[in-house]
Amino acid sequence: MKNSFFTLALLLLVGFHSNAQQVEFEEYDLDNGMHVILHQDNSAPVVTVSVMYHVGAKDEDPERTGFAHFFEHLLFEGTENIPRGEWFNIVTSNGGSNNANTTDDRTYYYEVFPSNSVELGLWMESERLLHPVINQIGVDTQNEVVKEEKRLRVDNQPYGNILAEVKKRMFKVHPYKGTTIGEMEHLDAATLEEFQAFNKKYYVPNNAVLVVAGDIDKAEVKKMIQDYFGPIPRGAEVTRDLPREEPITESMRDKAFDANIQIPAVIAAYRTPSFKDRDAYILDMISSYLSGGKSSILYKKLVDEQKQALAVQAVNISQEDYGLYALFALPLGDVSLDTLITEMDEEVAKIQTELISERDYQKLQNQFENQFVNSNSSVAGIANSLARYYMLYDNVNLINNEIDIYRSITREEIRDVAKKYLNSNQRLILEYLPKKDDQ
C-alpha cells in the first residue's frame, strides 16, 4: 500500500482516462462464471496475463482487517505444483516480471512475459486460483513481511498516516473507514482456518476477470484458457450489503499527530460519490483546475505569489462506493493553518459562484486530452484498464470512450458540482501536527 497522501492520491487518479488509439478487445464468460477479456496487439513480442478479483479491504470482517492485502502477498507463496518460494524464480527465469496490488475495492495480479510464454502465465494464474497452498508456514512468513511493509511505508513514513486519519473520521459505518493494510493485531489473531475461508469465499472464478493482452493468437489463447481455467469449479456467489453513510451536514474539526513530521499540514475533506457517478468526473476537473501543475490556481496563489505554502494540492480520491475530495496544504514559515484554509476556501467559492473562464476551461480540456493520449501506453496498462473497467465500472468500453465524458462536461456543471459537494458544513478540517514527546 502506498505510503503518503500525495502518492496514494495520485495513484488513485492514474488510470481514469483512456488510450487515444482505439483499443480493440473481445470478452466472454467461461461456464464457471469467470469473465475473460482478450486484447491482441502484435506490435511487440510481449504479453500480459492478469487476474483481478473483486475483493478488497471493504470486504473484510471489521475484526480481521488487512486480509485482502495479506492475500496479495500470501498467494505468491506457492501452489500444489509450484514449490514454496519458487514463483518469482519461475517468472524471472522465463524473462518475465510480475506484481500485485490491493485497494479497498479489488486485488490485482499480473505477469508480463515474452509472448512465447503466454501459456506459462495462464498456467501460473490458474494454479493460484485452483491449487493455492495456504498453510501456517506461509501465513507466518507473510505476516512478518506485511508488518515490515507497514513499518516502512506507513508508520515510519512522514505523513504516512494522513489519509487513514481522514478516512476514519469521514466514514462512520462503511468499511472505507479502515486502511487497506489493516491492523497488525487482527492478522496476529487470525487462525489458519480464517485465512482459508477468506480464500474459498473470494478467490473463485465467478468473482474474477482474466485479461490476456499483447502479442497473442486469440484462437490459441482461448483454448489454453479453457484448458487451464475451464475445469475450475464455480464458487458461491459473493453478495455485498454494506452500510450506507448518513450525509455530512455539520462541519467537523479535529487534530492528528505524527512523530515523523516537523511541518504541520491541514486537510479539508469532503465525502463525494462513487467514481461511476458523472459528478466524480467533474470533481476530477475541479481538482485539476485548482492544483494541476504550477500554473494552477492554488499553486500560483499560495506558493508562487503569496508565499504562504510549501505545497498545496486538491485531489479527488474516488472509489467504488464513495469518494473523498481533499484540499491539502503545508504552511511556509509561521503562516497559520486557518489562513491556508481561508485562502483555499476563497478559490472554491469563486468556482461555486462564477463560471471559470473559457481560457481555463480549454486548458482543462487540453490537460485531459493529453492524459487520454498518454494513458494505456503499454500492454500492461491496457490489461489493467480492461480489468478495472469491467470489474468496477461494469463497462469495458470506457477504455475507449471515457474521454467523451470529460469532453462533455460544461463550465456550468463545474460550478454546480462545486456548489453541491464542497461546502463548509459538509467537511472535515483536520490539522495534522508534529507529535510532541508528551503526546
The termini sit apart by 27 Å
Could you give me the name of the CATH homologous superfamily of the largest domain? Metalloenzyme, LuxS/M16 peptidase-like
The tally of strands reads 11
The CATH class designation of the largest domain is Alpha Beta
> What is the string of helix and strand elements?
HEEEHHEEHHHHHEHEEHHEEHHHHHE
Q: What is the count of DSSP helices, taking H or I runs of 4+ residues?
A: 16
Overall number of structural domains: 2
The averaged pLDDT comes out at 93
Strand content: 15-25%
> Major sheet: size, sense and barrel closure?
6 strands, mixed
Derived structural class: alpha+beta
- The global form is globular
- Known CATH architecture of the largest domain: 2-Layer Sandwich
Proportion of residues in helical segments = 40-55%
Radius of gyration: 23 Å
Q: What is the fold named in CATH at topology level of the largest domain? A: Cytochrome Bc1 Complex, Chain A, domain 1
Low-confidence stretches: 1-19
Strand line-up in the sheet with most strands:
1-2-6-3-5-4
Polypeptide structure, described:
- It comes from Winogradskyella flava.
- GO terms for molecular function: metal ion binding.
- Keywords: Signal.
- Residues 190-367 form the Peptidase M16 C-terminal domain.
- Residues 36-180 form the Peptidase M16 N-terminal domain.
- With 439 residues, this protein is of the alpha+beta class.
- The chain folds into two domains: 5-229, Metalloenzyme, LuxS/M16 peptidase-like (Cytochrome Bc1 Complex, Chain A, domain 1), CATH 3.30.830; 252-434, Cytochrome Bc1 Complex, Chain A, domain 1.
- Helices cover 43% and strands 19% of the residues.
- The chain has helices at residues 5-13, 67-74, 87-93, 118-130, 136-155, 162-170, 184-189, 192-202, 218-229, 278-291, 297-305, 337-353, 358-374, 379-393, 398-408, 411-421; strands at residues 26-29, 35-40, 46-53, 97-102, 107-114, 208-214, 252-258, 265-273, 309-318, 322-331, 427-434.
- The strands form two sheets. Strands 1-2-6-3-5-4 form a six-stranded mixed β-sheet, sandwiched between helices. The protein has a five-stranded mixed β-sheet with strand order 7-11-8-10-9, with helices on both faces.
- β4 (97-102) and β5 form a beta hairpin.
- The protein is globular and about 60 Å long.
- Residues 1-19 have low confidence and may be disordered.
